Structure formats: structure tokens, C-alpha cells
TrEMBL record:
Gene for this chain: ktrB
Keywords: Cell membrane, Ion transport, Membrane, Transmembrane, Transmembrane helix, Transport
BP terms from Gene Ontology: metal ion transport
Bilayer topology term: Multi-pass membrane protein
Coarse class of the protein's main subcellular location: membrane
Protein name in UniProt: Ktr system potassium uptake protein B
Family annotation (Pfam families): TrkH
């Protein structure tokens, strides 16, 4: 009878099951946040704001429609913290497993063969990856939390209890690239404090690189120290490390050059270039603002004061995002790197795409193109829709907000709370789609094969 019952249950694809699982977490969190116990004032929160906040937390975005510091009670803030942690651990674990499976590093074929022979699947490697990912996340979060807690206690005279809570909250938010903060101005009040900004920057960079790439680096280091056989760097690791450094430097230069006498001159309460903060503080904040869009969402500067050209460059940083196996969002560094390699190969006239002595298959290039095209279409369409719903805002502001939502960054020019309900719901959908969509699409495309026993006649249409 049990077999009969199971046969009537709908069969869900793994990606659909994952999406439904995270949707259930969002709805559960929104229920708590909408209750009177979730707010500091003891009044129910409008459902759209509770749903928006829960979606932002689980998708590791950080966009808010109400002030995190003053609107939510301790229960509400703890709920947000738990949603961030569940979302971060869930997505990092899934990305790590799927990435290793697609790369063939979990012996998938051998295990599937064992299943066909009735011997079952050995899930030892899978369990190890899950445990290692969770342990890695908790160790990094605990380390950053301790550093922040000590700083809060010694420099700001917080009690040890409050220092530990705020250190933990911001550490989890930073490592998971969520960008939620327990202050109404995010972390602008710490623009002069390197002991706050640099640990947060370290947390978001490590979280954005991801466990699989860091694990490869650790194993390679051990092999070098131990004198064992050293494997080549994978293209994923090369792309992620090089892309993280290049984009971090580019972001720092973008903000430094574009805002030296602008937003940077107002860091920490400065009023202008003449009596503003010194060069060291400006460089610190340029660095923090350069790495945060990928995709932490913390801001020590007011993005409403940014020049349109700086906002446009930040749009690009947000859209690219971070590593494929981490907590960052965007289309991912590897996707951008594959497309750049394809452009270089086509420019040179090469008949295949190759990087560092390794060929990249046409299937991977096409998958990257599909993800890029779908993402651009979704961002462009959503920007047009919100401009129609909220015509009082500029295209710069709306595009920034849309890309921030889709890339699950959380940076804002301050217009999100003032958007109409329909626009807020659209941003919530974008946050969910931006977090689940690229991973699900990449996995589905990589796992899908369609054989054809014939080829069509070739024709070359005009290009350009």
C-alpha cells in the first residue's frame, strides 16, 4: 500500500524541490516577522514587508523596506539571522555538491553503476562535503564574530552580551553576503574604523569565493608542503581567484577615482574634500565599497551621493557577483570569465576556446550565454516594469535597485521603502529568482543532453 501511495505523489525535479524548500523557509520566516511579536512596537507588520524581508534574508540580499535596527524586536532580528544562516548554508552546500558532481569529483558514475547492480550508493563523499561546508562556514563566522565582539566591547564600550550579539549577527550577515546590519545607517557609523570594516570585508570575500575553491587551495598547499603530487589548478579556481582580485581592485579604483572628492569626502561625517577624512580613511572606504557589491550589500558610504558613473560601474560589479560555490550572487565570475575567453578566442580566430592549456567545451560556452542572456532580459524587463510602476524615480536609481535585487547584493540608493507594493513584490521575486535561478539553470543545462542522429546543412547568416 505504501508503494501505491508513493506512486501518486508528484515527481519533482531536484531544482524544483530546492526552490520549494527555500520558499517554505521564506513563508515560515515571513509568518514570524508579520506577527506582533516580531516587531519592537508590538504591532503586526504588513505582509508585503514581512515577506520582502524574509525573502531578502533567505536569498542573502539585504534590501529592506523597514529599518532592521528599530522596526524588529529581538525575536524579529533573531529570525532574520536564522533565515540568513539557513539560506547561506543551504545555498553553499548545494552549490558545492552540484559543482563537484558536475566536475566528476564525487565518483558519480561509479556510484550510479553500483546502484544499477543493486549495491546502493555510497554517500560518504556527499556527507563529508556537507559536514565540511557547514564546519567551514561556522569556523569563519565564529572567528569574525570574536574579532568584532572584542572591538565593539573595547572601542564602543558595549557590554559583552551586546558585543557578542552584534559581532555574531554582522559576522553571519557578512560571511553569507547578506548585508543586513543592526544600525539604521547600515555600517556608515564605522566608516572610520578599520577594525570593523576590514573583518567584514574579509568575511564577505571568503564567503564569496566559496568552499570548493578554498578546499582546492588547501589541498594544493598541503601537497606542496608535504612534497606530494601537486595537481593543476582547476579553471574554476583560477577564474575565481583571479576574478576576485581583478574585480576587487577595479571596484576600489572605481570608487576611489569617482568619489574621492564626493562620497568619500563625506565618510564618517565629513562635509567636503577640504575638511573631510584623510587619504587612509578614503582608501579604506574605497576598498570596502569596491568589494561590497560582490555581493555583500554592506555600505559605509551613502550610495545616494554617488555619481551616476560610479553607480553604473557598481551595477556591473553587482551583476557579475562572486564565486560559483560561495554565498555571493550575480551571474558569477566563472560565467563572465568563460564568455571573455570565448570573445578572445573568436577575436584571435581560434577554432576552440582554451585557457591555461585546457579547452572549454562549446556546451559550457552556450550555457554561459544562456545564463547571461536570461539575466540581462530579466533585469531589463524588471527595470522597465518598475519605471512604469514608479515613474518618479530616475532610471539610474531603478536600475541600481533591480540589479541589486537580482544579484542578491542589497545595496540601495534609498528608494526601496518608497516603492509601491507591486514594485516591492517584483523586487522580492527578483531576489528569489536571482538566488535560485542561475544555480538551477546551470545545473539543468549541464545535466541535459539531447542526442541527434543527423546534422542540418550549415549556413552562415550575416553578423554585425
Amino acid at each position: 500500500m505504501s508503494n501505491t501511495r508513493r506512486s501518486h505523489l508528484p515527481h519533482l525535479r531536484p531544482t524544483a524541490a530546492v526552490a520549494l524548500g527555500f520558499l517554505a523557509v521564506i513563508l515560515s520566516g515571513a509568518t514570524v516577522l508579520a506577527s506582533p511579536w516580531g516587531t519592537a512596537a508590538g504591532r503586526s507588520t504588513p505582509l508585503v514587508d514581512a515577506l520582502f524581508t524574509a525573502t531578502s534574508a533567505v536569498s542573502l540580499t539585504g534590501l529592506v523596506t523597514v529599518d532592521t535596527a528599530s522596526h524588529w524586536s529581538t525575536l524579529g532580528q533573531v529570525t532574520i539571522l536564522l533565515l540568513i544562516q539557513i539560506g547561506g548554508l543551504g545555498f553553499m552546500t548545494l552549490a558545492s555538491l552540484l559543482g563537484l558532481l558536475l566536475a566528476g569529483r564525487l565518483g558519480l558514475r561509479r556510484r550510479l553503476g553500483a546502484t544499477a547492480e543493486g549495491r546502493g550508493i555510497d554517500l560518504g563523499d556527499v556527507v563529508w562535503v556537507i559536514r565540511a561546508t557547514i564546519a567551514f562556514s561556522l569556523i569563519v563566522e565564529a572567528t569574525i564574530a570574536c574579532v568584532l565582539a572584542v572591538r565593539f566591547h573595547t572601542a564602543y564600550e558595549y557590554s559583552w552580551g551586546r558585543a557578542a550579539w552584534e559581532g555574531t549577527f554582522h559576522s553571519v550577515s557578512g560571511f553569507n553576503n547578506a548585508g543586513f546590519a543592526l544600525y539604521s545607517d547600515n555600517v556608515m557609523g564605522f566608516a572610520l574604523d578599520a577594525w570593523i570594516l576590514l573583518p567584514l570585508a574579509f568575511a564577505l570575500i571568503i564567503g564569496g569565493i566559496g568552499f570548493p575553491v578554498l578546499l582546492e587551495a588547501v589541498r594544493r598547499t598541503r601537497a606542496v608542503i608535504g612534497g606530494g603530487a601537486v595537481r593543476r589548478w582547476s579553471l574554476t579556481a583560477r577564474f575565481t581567484f583571479v576574478g576576485t582580485v581583478v574585480l576587487g581592485l577595479a571596484g576600489t579604483a572605481l570608487v576611489g577615482l569617482g568619489e574621492w572628492d564626493g562620497a568619500l569626502a563625506q565618510a564618517g561625517g565629513g562635509t567636503g574634500s577640504g575638511d573631510g577624512p584623510g587619504a587612509g580613511v578614503r582608501l579604506l572606504n574605497a576598498f570596502f565599497a569596491g568589494v561590497s557589491p560582490r555581493t555583500a550589500g554592506f555600505n559605509a558610504l551613502d550610495y545616494a551621493d554617488f555619481h551616476p558613473s560610479t553607480l553604473l560601474g557598481t551595477d556591473l560589479l553587482m551583476f557579475i557577483g562572486g564565486g560559483s560555490g560561495g554565498t555571493a550572487g550575480g551571474v558569477k565570475i566563472t560565467t563572465a570569465a568563460v564568455l571573455v575567453a570565448a570573445v578572445v578566442a573568436e577575436t584571435r580566430g581560434d577554432n576552440s576556446v582554451a585557457v591555461h592549456g585546457r579547452a572549454i567545451s562549446g556546451d559550457v560556452v552556450r550555457q554561459a550565454l544562456v545564463i547571461l542572456t536570461g539575466s540581462v532580459t530579466l533585469v531589463f524587463g524588471s527595470t522597465m516594469a518598475i519605471l512604469f510602476l514608479a515613474p518618479t524615480f530616475t532610471t539610474d536609481q531603478v536600475a541600481f535597485e533591480v540589479i541589486s535585487a537580482f544579484a542578491t547584493v542589497g545595496l540601495s540608493t534609498g528608494i526601496t521603502p518608497d516603492l509601491p507594493v507591486a514594485a516591492k513584490l517584483l523586487l522580492a521575486v527578483l531576489m528569489f529568482a536571482g538566488r535560485v535561478g542561475p544555480l538551477a539553470l546551470a545545473t539543468a543545462l549541464a545535466a541535459r543532453t539531447r542526442g541527434r542522429c543527423f546534422d542540418y546543412p550549415e549556413e552562415r547568416p550575416f553578423i554585425g
